[in-house]
Write a structure and sequence with these properties.
Radius of gyration: 26 Å
CATH class: Mainly Beta
CATH architecture: Beta Barrel
Strand content: over 45%
Structural class: mainly beta
Helix content: under 10%
CATH superfamily: TonB-dependent receptor, beta-barrel domain
Number of domains: 1
Largest sheet: 22 strands, antiparallel, barrel
Number of helices: 8
CATH topology: Maltoporin, Chain A
């Protein structure tokens, strides 16, 4: 399928979604209905079509049929939901075009814009939202639009919820699943997963899920000692155990533990230019990059060890359910990068030290040690009357220790420049420790009143109070020396919501809402003053101090949900306008090799999202999703001369999200004479053009001067394109299933698309320019057995 044909098909599907009329004659049949999921988007059980705002939900079966194995692949099949890949376990989530720029590893104070939950426990953490396995889930819910009233500060533009299968008192059951795969031009990968549910007695049941995934590497690293193949391989291993205790009909107690570890030996980065390895060198070996190659001098690594323990308690009184959710999280994250190109751009490029110095391996270690405790207590009505309500309180306490260490072994001896400092050891050119303490308390409530049998009105409100303290220590010759300097910030916020839902017919519901979301502010790190030009220091120091404010969104939307063709089809469509204030824009601080958060007065996102499911016949079904987001700045942030800073110009697009994305999935099922069922699924996904940062829209493509004294560059300047082109991914899966088993073969990325997911750069663009990419065409087979 060519790109042009796919784009035309995707746009046609979007038109069909908006019109809401099936392309073939409608019919009703008992075996041709669309199964409706029960969701808990309002913290009570409801059928998806009855939720009066835009929600997408996919079951594990649907995700498996579509070749979805992680949240990034899921996002391509959900309207208005995007995930920017920044490496394994470091993806960044956005909903409805609201994004303030790529959050990177050394910005621990930035809060998330999308809340992510595992059942009732919040697990989102800015850049490092856990990359959970999707095995043994009941469903994934994507709640579009601000969800601050019920889900708090991290749900500025929406909420993502992983809903797991719960222990069942009724039956002993289990499932095992094994997958083998081969990446074209890369390594072999495999998965082994299993789940078992064991009733212990009439009042207790245990459910245990375990998984082990071996990631197939496909990036080759060109190094001074030779080429290392498939360096971005690794594994994800985890176990989840839940115990259901039901001493009476009214009381359920569910303790759970989850442990997961990700260990990856490199990043899915393609280098186009690296100052230490490129095709323009005259005094160093020439290296032709691109394709699926990167240049490194040392082994890179990502590790994420995640432990969660939570306790859910539900007690039913007369017409009221009391719910308590206690959660504790312990995480340790290591990002080890090869910063030799960055260091060399300073020691060799700016200072002019000899090759013996700027060639020294420079590992840069970012470490995060996190402990989080949260407690939610709420009351929910369970009666049958016209008034349904939920009210509760929420508390969280976060201890987060962040550190960064750039160790250039032998630097002082070879350069003659002393590098020992107050805190930083010898040859540790950049050394920082930043311990955080964050506390939040909130109260919330929401009520729905049925004015008539067809008209419901919902009103809700949340109030949150937040405090953050931290101690800043930055040392080393690359840092602006800051030793044990305290910092603090505090804020409070209100998040109201009003929804009106009208059941126009038995099969069509119209809804409209006004809602507010918020993202808490924080404290900027000091600039790396020794690296800054005087002009850059004056500009960015004024922006970075002392802290950045809360970001808020007022969301206005109207939509419709419909069943048609006697239950064979369903349609959800919504149009929205989001008014954003104090956008927390992530910007590069020029020559300082720093990143800061600066508040931009206003921005907006307007558009639509729509999803269609339709069972064409007993054998065929089709699903489609499409969204359009016109998200852009509506004010500028200027320097003392009145010039917009880092692309923060009125009218520029918000980064990381496309204007248009869409997907189409066609499924086929047919019973065969031998009692088996054959099935197939073809899913095509389109993601439009994007920018990694707001500033990438300025001077694009951008001309960048090289460092001629590093490798004797024959090119005085290079031109780098900064717009991420659109891409299409097609997945095919086919197989047979019988009594308790399923065998399937699949090809993911059928067209072998090389998508550019995000620009990767060092020191602006002068030290390194490349991009993060997806896996090439991947072949595989899965065997699944239920018992």
């Amino acid at each position: 399928m060519t790109n042009r044909k796919f784009v035309l098909t995707a746009r046609a599907s979007a038109l069909a979604l908006l019109i809401g009329i099936p392309a073939v004659p409608a019919f009703a049949a008992d075996d041709a209905t669309v199964e409706e999921l029960v969701v808990t988007a309002r913290k009570r059980d409801e059928q998806l079509i009855d939720v009066p705002f835009s929600v997408a939900a996919q079951s594990e079966q649907v995700m498996r049929n579509r070749g979805v194995t992680n949240v990034e692949e899921l996002s391509r099949t959900v309207a208005s939901f995007t995930v920017q890949n920044l490496g394994p376990g470091q993806s960044q989530v956005a909903i409805r075009g609201i994004s303030a720029g790529q959050i990177v590893r050394d910005q621990p104070g930035v809060k998330e814009q999308v809340g992510v939950y595992l059942d009732e426990s919040v697990i989102s953490l800015s850049l490092f939202t856990p990359d959970l396995d999707l095995f043994d889930l009941n469903r994934v819910e994507v709640l579009r639009g601000p969800q601050g009233t019920l889900f708090g500060s991290g749900s500025l533009s929406g909420t993502v919820r992983y809903i797991t299968n719960q222990p069942d008192l009724g039956a002993f059951q289990g499932v095992v699943e094994a997958t083998g795969s081969k990446v074209q031009g890369g390594d072999m990968g495999w998965d082994l997963k299993g789940s078992i549910n064991v009733p212990l007695n009439d009042q207790m049941a245990l459910r245990v899920t375990a998984y082990n995934t071996q990631y197939a590497g496909f990036i080759d690293a060109v190094q001074p000692t030779g080429v290392k193949s498939d360096v971005n391989d690794g594994y994800r291993r985890g176990v989840r155990a839940s115990l259901l205790i039901q001493p009476s009909e009214n009381l359920t107690i569910t303790p759970r533990v989850l442990y997961q570890k990700i260990d990856v030996d490199g990043f899915n980065r393609v280098d186009i230019y690296n100052i230490l390895g490129n095709q323009f060198s005259t005094t160093r070996p020439r290296v032709q990059l691109g394709g699926l190659k990167q240049y490194t001098q040392l082994k890179e690594k990502f590790e994420d060890e995640f432990f969660l323990a939570d306790l859910s308690l539900n007690y039913d009184l007369d017409g009221v359910r009391v719910t308590s959710i206690s959660s504790f999280t312990d995480r340790e994250v290591l990002v080890l990068r090869d910063a030799t190109a960055l260091t060399a751009s300073i020691t060799g490029g700016s200072i002019g030290l000899p090759p013996a110095v700027y060639n020294i391996d420079s590992p840069l270690a970012d470490t995060t040690d996190l402990q989080t405790f949260t407690q939610e207590l709420r009351l929910t009505s369970t009666g049958e009357g016209p008034l349904q309500w939920v009210a509760g309180a929420f508390y969280s306490h976060i201890d987060r220790d962040y550190a960064q260490d750039l160790f250039v072994n032998g630097f002082s001896r070879l350069s003659g420049i002393p590098s020992k400092s107050d805190v930083a050891p010898t040859d540790h050119l950049y050394f920082s420790t930043v311990p955080y303490k964050q506390k939040q308390f909130a109260v919330f409530g929401e009520a729905t009143y049925s004015v008539t049998d067809r008209l419901d009105v919902t009103a809700g409100l949340r109030w949150a109070d937040y405090k953050e303290t931290r101690t800043l220590t930055f040392d080393g010759i690359f840092a602006d020396k800051t030793i044990a300097v305290p910092g603090k910030t505090k804020a409070d916020a209100w998040a109201p919501r009003v929804i009106v839902a009208y059941e126009a017919t038995d099969n069509i519901t119209l809804n409209a809402q006004v809602s507010k979301g918020f993202r808490l502010g924080g404290i900027n790190d000091p600039l790396n003053r020794p690296l800054c030009t005087p002009a850059d220091f004056a500009t960015f120091n004024a922006l970075s101090q002392p802290s950045f404010k809360n970001e808020t969104v007022w969301n206005y939307e109207a939509g419709a949900k419909a069943r048609f063709a006697g239950g064979a089809g369903s349609l959800t469509v919504a149009g929205f306008y989001a008014d954003i204030k104090n956008l927390q824009a992530t910007i590069d601080a020029g020559s300082c090799s720093s990143r800061i958060i600066a508040n931009v007065d206003s921005a907006k996102s307007a558009g639509f999202d729509a999803e269609l499911s339709y069972r064409l016949t007993e054998n065929f079904d089709i699903s489609a999703a499409a969204s359009y987001n016109d998200a852009k700045l509506t004010s500028s942030l200027v320097d003392a001369r009145g010039v917009p800073i880092q692309g923060l110009r009125d009218g520029n697009r918000l980064p990381t999200v496309p204007k248009f994305q869409g997907s189409i999935s066609v499924g086929y099922e047919r019973e065969m004479e031998n009692g088996l069922e054959a099935f197939a699924n073809l899913t095509a996904q389109h993601v439009g053009k994007r920018y990694t940062q707001v500033s990438d829209q300025e001077n694009n493509p951008r001309t960048v001067a090289t460092f001629p004294n590093l490798g004797g560059q024959t090119a005085a300047s290079l031109i780098f394109p900064l717009e991420l082109p659109s891409y299409e991914i097609v997945n095919l899966r086919l197989g047979v299933r019988g009594d308790g088993f399923e065998v399937a073969a699949f090809v993911n990325n059928l067209g072998d698309e090389r998508a550019k997911l995000a620009i990767d750069r060092e020191r602006g663009l002068r030290a390194r320019y490349g991009f993060l990419t997806n896996a090439p065409r991947t072949y595989g087979a899965t065997f699944r057995k239920e018992f």
